[in-house]
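Known limitations

Files may contain more than one protein. Parsers should not assume a single record per file. Below, a two-record file is shown to illustrate correct handling: read the sequence, read the token line, then continue until end of file.
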Amino acid sequence: MGSRVVGSTTAGGRLFRELFTFGSDSLTHWFPSHMAKSFKKMQAQMKKVDLVVEIHDARIPFTGRNEMMREALSIKPHLLVLNKKDLCDMSKAQAVKARLLEEEGIKNVLYTNCVKQHSDTAKKVIPKIEKILKEEARFNRSEEHHYTIMVTGVPNVGKSSLINAMRRLNIKKGKAARVGKMPGVTRSVMNRILVSASPPMWLLDTPGILTPYVKDVETGMNLAVCGTLLDYMVGDEIIADYLLYTLNQYNKLKYCKVYDLDGPCDDIFVFLAHIAKKEQKTIRVKTYQGSMSVRWNINSAAVKFIRDFRDGQLGTLTLL
């Protein structure tokens, strides 16, 4: 039996669904073999590292961060970078920082948007790292004249984008790390990448590593909505349905204006049919009689809806 998320809200006097029913719990078990191998390599590199920068999606600050990795890497100073700040609800930033400090003891938190070519927020990363390192003992690396920083995080949260932004801003060099919208672009622990000449600072880019067991299906769906899991693992229409449910729960109704709706909608098939009609997205299907019929392309509409959310077209959202 699938899992359920319970909740209800109203908009304009309308009651939305009180629960979201998932078809399967299989989403909670996903840890490809390349992730396990990469994690072991990362552990082996720790003696050469001065500080760990953990990058995560600012829309899901408490969802999906790898507890196993945090425990293993906790022996080094730690900076949590919440990237994609342009897509999250920044009015909740102080509450997020306070909760991180209270629940996890994380005091070094920085919001960034490192996808932009010349991000002002990316300029703050190296000074923040320097400040942390001045306050922490270097132990076996005290005689080194350069810093080595390991960059970690779950897939598709902007690790490579951060590295490239830091290179552009500090040493005026171009891309050193591959960037892609699909999770899993970086597959191996790379060689050191120079991101600062003064002080000399090298970064180790690492592949995105999820926790071996997502604690519940809701957590997995939040990761899927933000593009951290591969869409085909969940299904476009399921992701779209959960996204619609979530936007309604948080009273984030900008989608009504974007898609020319008279008001909020809670029926995913009616909603996607409306988008398909608006965008003239059709598909030819074969009928039982053998003839061809043209119908609205629901899956294509689901893909557009998900993409619009991830690109920020439907407003900001922080899932707490």
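...continuing to the second record:
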Amino acid sequence: MRATTLQKAGPGKEGAHEEGLWAVAWLPGHSQLITGSVDETVKLWSAADDDLKCSHTYTGQALGVVSLDVDPSGRYAVSSSLDSTVRVFGLDDDKSVKHLIERQPTETWGTAFGTVTPDSTQLAVAGGSKGQAFVYKGSGEEPAQELALDLPQAEGSGHKERFVLCVAFSPDRQLLAAGAMDGSVAVWDLAAGGQLLHVGGLKGHHKPVRSLAFTPDSKLLLTACDDMHANLYDVHQGALVDAFSGHESWVLDVAIHPEGAVFATASSDAKVKLWELASRSLVQTISEHTDQVWGCSFSSDGTRLASVGDDKQVVVYSVA
């Protein structure tokens, strides 16, 4: 499986972001995606034609957007911005803010959708300097905090700050994983009320863990870390299965193909890499960006990959 460049939108393009891009996520299918930027906006893009076109710009994301996710129905997106505010907003005809979570400064970072029904929305939020991961649930304008989960201290981290950077739900919504600045990686069993699966967390990183992705069967977890590695863990055994090296700088994001056969990593070395999970091998190195690549995301049908970076570009690739 390899990626071929299809579309680009960057400086000089109508509707393009004015500053670096830090987050990207697809709506169901492969015709629309959203991007978040330091320019304090989220943009909705149409990728249905030969050319990427910005169809809507969401403003008000003060100080810049650090995280995005789209719910499985494609009706809602969630953003986390540096003003410590998490917003859930519409992606269809009604593009207004549906839910708003405001925390103290530095107490939010990454965010992800859990179970979403017509009556209730579940969200996870990386708690930043609070050293916790939060789970929210509710139907009102401000969802109620359901769980506050403490991260274990990473081995050998001493008294380093446990700034929580990223969260991810397992596809079956039974587990929640989080990664932190000191290399901590934790997994909780939500079906058991948020019980920590492994005392001390998953071992192997000692630098910031910036992104997490479960395999489609919810049994394995991939991590992206500033130690220039992406690690693969057996979630239930708590064992390090493999460590993938090849990037020349921090690994900033990791995304897995919906079929689970390959995964992508984005790095501050300005490269995107594709890896085959079964053979544990590097498949392809992509060099479309000229600055660090903060985000990568596969479309739900597996036919597209998108990447975004500090070069102000969003790049879309076909995957086959």
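Parsers that stop after the first record will miss the second one. For reference, the second record is described as follows. The longest strand covers residues 3-9.
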